[in-house]
Every structure is written in structure tokens, then in C-alpha cells.
Write a structure and sequence with these properties.
Helix content: 40-55%
Shape: globular
Distance between the termini: 67 Å
Oligomer: single chain
CATH architecture of the largest domain: 3-Layer(aba) Sandwich
Strand order of the largest sheet: 2-3-4-1-5
CATH class of the largest domain: Alpha Beta
Number of domains: 4
Radius of gyration: 27 Å
Order of helices and strands: HHHHHEHEHHEHEEHHHHHHHEHHEEHH
Strand content: 5-15%
CATH topology of the largest domain: Rossmann fold
Structural class: alpha/beta
Length: 464
Amino acid sequence: MTSGGDPRRSEPLRRERELRGWSQAYLAQAVGAGGPYCISRWERGVVRPSPYYRERLCRLFGRNAEELGLIDPAQGEAVPSPDDVPGHLPAPLTPLIGRADETSRARALLRGDDVRLLTMTGPPGAGKTRLGLAVASELRRDFLDGVYFADLASLPDPDQVGAALHRALDLREPRENGAEEAIVSHLRERRALLVVDGFEHVRPAASMLLGLLTRCPKLRLLVTSRAALRSRGEHELLVRPLPVPDPVHPPDPELLAQVPSVALFVERAQARSSAFRLTPRSAAAVAAICRRLDGLPLALELAAVWTTLLDPAALLARLERRLPMLEGGAEDLPERQRTMRRALEWSYGLLAPSERLLFHRLSVFAGSAPLSAVEVVCAAGGRLERSVLHLMGRLLDENLVQCESGGGDPRVTMLETVREYANELLRATGEARATERALARYCASLSKARRPDGLSSSGTYSAR
């Protein structure tokens, strides 16, 4: 269909509206469309309304779809344009790099009949919000009754979630019986997608999200959170750090540029300075930077800021201590994403006291460590309200640690950027020496017993 459309086809719609003295803005509000521009496109024949809007228009005017010129039996139904989909998604200002697999997986899940609640989880700085926006944008044609975005990161408590969702849906003032009822009334029969961003600190409101899904059978929820909601019907998609270069093979610039973490770092560096290039001379340092920063998108973006002042080799040297360098994020970013330290503080602030103690103590292990070693060393200082095993489960849920269970004793590890932050806190509490001594005693006991599953010759774990 041409951009000018076929005004003869939808002339009845315009005529019926004008006969009643209604403006395009009023009609858009009456049927819940995306504004007067959407009505204009329907009237000009640029695009046909979706079945949902067709039904609302027919009910409002007391006419059938053919009488309103909304369908043409000879031509069949046109595919609606994503521009006509209600809702407001923030337009990303940077490209999404290295997330093709996650995007494809999320799209497939939300398009299916079995998944109505998809939660994207992952460590601080992994890029969950950016991925969620990309997925939602690509699903506009699948949810023609609305794709909406609600940012909950700034909410002080769970009781305000309903009001925040109400605002995200562009609804009028809540009815007397509350925001939740107004949301249900609006979404009950709509095939809509609601993106709920930054849910980790308001998880007690998960029951409200479940209530919306129960009462709005066509609704889908895409939630981003540092931890899963642990709700009925929830499917979890873990957003891991980006792949990093292989440390074994010499870095070839052409091949290195295809590694997602390197591609992101180079793209952000070139956004700061068009003169930045990945060269044979800089390739090794850039590869090492990406490994040192664990492939975390936020950390890579913050490090790339320095490339206007430091060449990759000089930047790598200064990243021996990561956190002081990972600052200076863009002013339009949320406060928690302007420095890597703030991103970690956000997650740390959600932990209970005993969980914080275990988080501190884990930082004495370099690399991965057997869970059996973690249980002994981290319990040595006492003051833990629950067992190390139970507390470890909570840190896993919060994506502050990882666990590899390839058979036998599971191995626990932390991203190095996260470990540096935890070790700062350990030293601030005055527990560092005692925890390091507990690790040394454990290693000595393994050596004395000649157990092969203890400290490896390459130093699988050691006191810091």
C-alpha cells in the first residue's frame, strides 16, 4: 500500500466521525488507540486497524466493519503497521551487539502459547534492559493491541508498582477501586506486551503481576530483574556477559573484531573518538581488557570512555584495579548505571546481613572453588544466620555468583569485577585476615591429607 493510502476505502470512518463532531484525538482516546496520528492513518487508508480496534470501532459507531470501510473483502486484510501499535518504548541510542541468540530465544518464547511471563535475569551490568527493549521492539507486529514499557528502578517500594504500570499504559486517573482494576479493565481482552524493567527491588509485587496475567488472558509480561520472581508460570532467560576472546590464541584483529565483547568495546570507543582503530599493535591489549572486565557490557562501555585519553595498553594497566576506572557513564543513564560500583551497590543493597557476610568472604577465593571448600572457609567466621549452602542459593539467585556442576563437587566462582567489589567490602569490615587464615588452614589440611581435589598446581583457588 502506498504512503498516501486509499482515502475512498476508509472515507466512511471519517464521515461517521465528523457526523458526530468528534476529533481524531477524541476517537483515539475512545478506542484506546495510539493517538490522532493512528486515526489519521486509518482514515487515509494507509493501514487497516487490527481486529481488536476494528471491534471497538464497530461497537462505538454501531456499524459493521464493511460499513465503516475497515475491511475490503476483495483484497483481504492488510498487515497492520507497527507504527499503529499503542505504547511507548524508549528508543535506544546505541546498537545492540552480540545478543542475537538471546533475542531470538526471547522472541520465540513470547510468541508461543505456553509462555506468558518471561523474566530476563543476569548479573549487574549484563545489559538486561537493552536486550528487553530490543525484543519488545521486534515483537510489535505480534502485539498489535499494545507494547508498553514500565521502568520501576526508581520506585521506593512495591506498593507503587500498580501506579507505575497505570502510568506506563497512559491511562486516566485510577478508578475508585484502584490502579490494578483500571489496568485489568484496559488489558482484559487485549493481546498486549508489557515490559516491566528493574523489578528486583519490588519483588513482593510479583503477586500483582500474576493477578494481571490471570485476569488478562491475552497479556504477556517481559520482566527484567537481577533475580527471578519465582512465580507460577515463569520462564527465566539468563543474560550472561558477552563472550570474551580466547586467551590462548594470538589475537588477529580481523577475527578479534567478531568477538561480541570486543565488538562492543570498539564500537563504544569509536563513538568517543572516530580515530580509534583495532590494530595488530592494540589487539592484544583490547582482548585482555575484555577478559579483565568479564565481558560485562556496562563495564566495557565505561572503560571505552577512557580511550580518548589512554591507549589500550595504558588502559589495561590501570584496570588492574577496575572499579576506580569504571565511572563516567552518560548523564542520561539511570543513576545505578553511571558507574560499575553503583551497579554493584544496587544489587548488594538487596541482600540480607548474612548474605552480605558470605558475599564478602567469597572474595578470598581466586578463580573457582569447590563448594565444600566454600562451606568450610566461609563458615569459619561465624555470624551466619543460615547455612552457607542456603545463603549460597540466595547469591546464585541474585546472580552475584555462578556455580558449575559438571559432576562431583560443584564449583563456585565470581566475576572478577564483582570479586574486586566484594573484597573491598571484606577489608572494610576487618574480616579479611581472619578469612584468609581460614582459607590457608583449609589448604594446609588438604595438603596434609594429600587429597587430589584440593588446591591444584595451577592455583585454582588461593588466599588473596
